[in-house]
Please model this.
Amino acid sequence: MYSDQTETLTKKRIPLITLVGQPNSGKTTIFNFLSGKNFKTVNYPGSTVEYYVSRILSKHAVDANILDSPGIISLVPSSPDERLSVKALHSHPEYGAPDLVIVTVDSSQLSRHLLLVRQLQDSGFNVVVALTMIDILHRKGFDISETKLSQLLGCKVVRINGKTGEGIDNLLGAVKEGITSEQAGRRLIETRTPNSKRKEKLLESYREIESIENEVLFTLKSAKDDSRSSLASINEQLIVLGNNVRNRPDENTLRLDKILLHKFWGLAVFALIMSVTFTLIFWLAAPLMDLVNDGFSIASEFAFQALGDTWYGNLVSNGIISGVGSVMVFLPQILILFLILGLLEDSGYLARGAMLVDKPLSAIGLNGKSFVPMLSGFACAIPAIMATRTISNKRERFLTIFIVPLMSCSARLPVYALLTAFLFPPEDTLMGGIAMTAIYLFSIASSLVIASIANRLSKSISNLNDPSSFILELPAYRKPKLSVVGANSFNNAMQYVRKAGPVILYLSVILWVLTYFPNHTPQIDGAGRSEEEIVELTNSERIATSYASYMGKFLEPVLEPIGMDWRVGVSLVATLAAREVFVSSLALMFKVTEAGDDIQNSLLDAMRNAKIEGTGMKLFTTATSIGLIVFFVFALQCISTIAIVRKETGSWTIPALQLIAFTGLAYFLTYITVNGLRFIGVN
Amino acid sequence: MKNAAQLKPGEIAVIIDVDNDHPSSHRILEIGFTPGQEIQFISGALFNDPMAFSIRGSIVAIRKNEASCILIKPKH
Model:
């Protein structure tokens, strides 16, 4: 007891440094320099806004925590994302108020970025400015005097080269001094300017900043001729040049934008980039996904061999390892998607993509900023729903969240692959490809139709006065930093595993229990049968008498009208864990053993021969297969999605609506498809 | 009075004021569209909406409707 108390008394609080900056100001690069790669993510309690926190690398000899935060434009927030960032900046619930704030300032956009510095200083923060993007400033023909800027702002200013890390030592020096200064321990007062005074205050800050800008920027040419100290003469030159040159955006960017923002060429390039993205997500990921799949199959097999055909052997191999495998198999695809998104974002293109689609999306109640979440939805709805936080308008954000589960996520891919392989012989890769593309286009088209209907309905229900807005900086184009993008993609993918993993794992175990018990060791007449056949019969007998089968049979009256039977029903119940489980569970239901070579071909054979029990009718026909595809396009079958929507929207309303509307619609459209096709003679 | 939504691609103008009644006016001021600044209409998406402007050395895209609250006068 005694020793505990002394420890708390003598334990010094580790100083906290927070990194603040506008989006695209080079914040993450500096964070990576200071933290190495040992960062962890922390959640802001009660929300899912993530922060990266790290102890500063020991080689830098500064003992402090460094906290990265999402980009903000000003201390007056305008989206849920920004509101939380600003709140956490003043006092982080876990780490408290920062002892020092490092503000990243893009020197090529000085006046816009200095606004945040001024606001931070006005609120009483202890500030150090890190000047970034000096290369772009040089490209414009200017240089900056950090000593002069430091004098005028009244805080330390350090220039950083994001590519080489030059200047990090100076930054650390400023940080060391800053956290020991008396300003560090000061209490912060959150200042609020009344609305009526806000414009006045803002214009005053900008006037002040403009005069600072005039004094610290000088042309590169004169910097070579004169020494840096003769700022007066340089400033004279600057006045001659006027604001026009200095306030020109990066010339390379302007030239590229002539094409990339062109009315027709811009759209053509956009379409091209999107097709390449999708091709990469599917074709590049496929071999990696096979690899992961094979790895888990071997592990599962190995566990089964080691533990034997016991209940715990089955639990470990079929419940746990296969369950974990079903999450991990999508990791390559998610990683590639994050990587491409990261490269597009870092190069500056993503913001342009959002701009190009804002008009069409706003016509159906969405926003240009819905574009990135919708794109991510093609890999997995979970990261996609988290990505909607950048949309400031609540209605648009909720509408985006509403339709994201309709994007054809990668978990549906194995199901579509199986069903298209059933419809077209595997040799016919062309028809298979066309069918797959058609499914994707169909799902995009239907999600847009549903969005526009939902938009009309929500407008007639609520009359929220929440004006829609699209204000987005289009950053200067630059070569993406692969190391930063790579590290972030990896981190995002790991976050996905941590979020989705546990849910899928628990559900897999529950599902395993439902399919394994109560008749876990059925008596099979083994006379005259090979060992393999006995295993096969045992498995199918066990499942036919399992709890899952009771559920399937209970569902049978609902399934019969859409041409399915209880076995498909069990597989559909199983998809609650993850959609792709449909395939493995069908294999289980139709007595397909993994013994032999190709599980897909033996499953296809089994499907061709399957008959609806008690009748001679074939179960899987062209009509029912297309019906199943339609079902998977619409139905909300993923518990993780429901959980994340609940968390992000703060209530059960939207997830409940999604569950009822999408699954109801799926059932209704499947019914029409199956019976319509049967009616016109397709079987 | 002319507003930024009426500019033609490539056209340069000077901001006179930002209409306070527009719901986005504060964010527009914050991002740098303040009186006295020079803007150029760089390019527009389909139907010129949103519009990309150069402002204070950056390019910022805003909706046509938001651009209409930026009151301008032609340069010189």
Observations:
- The longest helix of chain A spans residues 265-307.
- The CA atoms of residues 526 and 533 of chain A lie 9 Å apart.
